[in-house]
Amino acid sequence: MSPHRRYSALALLLLSSWQQGADAFTTAVQKRSNVLSATTSTSLAAEGLGSTAAVEERPTKDDAATIVTNLTAEEAKKALIDLIPRMTGSEEEYRAVESYVNLLEEKYSPVQTIGFLNLAMAGEWQLLFSTNLTGRPNRKLRMTELIQRIEADGFGGKLINSAQWSYADNEEGTFDTNGSFNIKCSYNINQGARMVIDLDQHELRPANGSGIPSDVPAMVALLERAIPKEMFHPNDHAMDTTYLDADLRIARMTGAKYEGVRNIFFRKGQLEIKPGL
Questions:
Q1: Which pTM was predicted?
Q2: Are 197 and 239 in contact (CB under 8 A)?
């Protein structure tokens, strides 16, 4: 199916929304590890780690694993949050993320009632890290934020993945259009904390005062490459909450397409990302 036919309905939605008056993550590049292949997001880069001095002695994999397993859940959480903004793309970093996530999931005691689960999940969550971001950055598109908003209602609710974008719709390369791209879904909880997700619609919404991209399907295709696939195409899979506290949430996908993919979220407004510090 061609991109123009594929997104024709979305383009009509865009024009309809624009007539009513529209409201508005530098994408990360990726590198996959063997088990928990990881890609940083939210203005993080994965370009590879420079060589270290030959005299430096690194811990072995077994030593590193022992160190991680001896951490408390709070220590592992702090180490994970400290590491993600500083990642440079080394295999050691990805193994560390894998170890921290595994430890947090192992020590996690799931919420026992739907009321407490909804209270803990509801709100806006900023994506920090995905193991399934495989598209490469494009100089015409810039994403500044990727948020997942959960509106819980008993054993169901709404889930909205929202990306803030700027687009260079000119030969000079200046970002002259901007807005939000919303992936609106419904979900039901059918066992434990497993959320079965159904896509309702994609919505491209320019910001107030912004122009409309001249080629909407082409711009949406760039967004599709930049957003993790399980967030852009949420049908045909379910999402397990494998760790949850007041400000950190880890979700594991299950299903034929995205089995084992993990997303790490932090509650919006609770963490300031400073890459490289």
A1: 0.74
A2: yes
Distance CA 165, CA 27 (A): 10
- The first and second tokens of residue 73, run together, are 């859940």
pLDDT digit string, tens, across residues 90-118: 889 989 999 999 999 999 999 889 999 99
Cβ-based neighbours of 175, under 8 Å, separated by 6 or more: 142, 166, 167, 168
| Residue 264 CB-density burial (10 A; 0-12 exposed, 13-18 middle, 19+ buried) | buried
User: Roughly how many angstroms between the first and final C-alpha of the chain, as a whole number?
Assistant: 44
Q: Is 256 helix (H, G, I), strand (E, B) or coil?
A: coil
Contact between 158 and 184 under an 8 Å Cβ cutoff? The reply is: yes
DSSP three-state, residue 177: strand
Structure confidence by residue, pLDDT tens digits, 194-245? 999 999 999 999 999 998 999 999 999 999 999 999 999 998 889 999 999 9
CA distance 103 to 92: 16
* Residues 253/232, Cβ–Cβ less than 8 Å: no
For 77-98, what is the mean pLDDT?
91
Q: How far is CA 32 from CA 66, 93, 233, in A?
A: 23, 11, 20
CA distance 91 to 49: 9
Task: With both helix axes pointing from N to C terminus, report the angle between 8-19 and 216-226 in degrees, rounded to the nearest 10.
Answer: 110
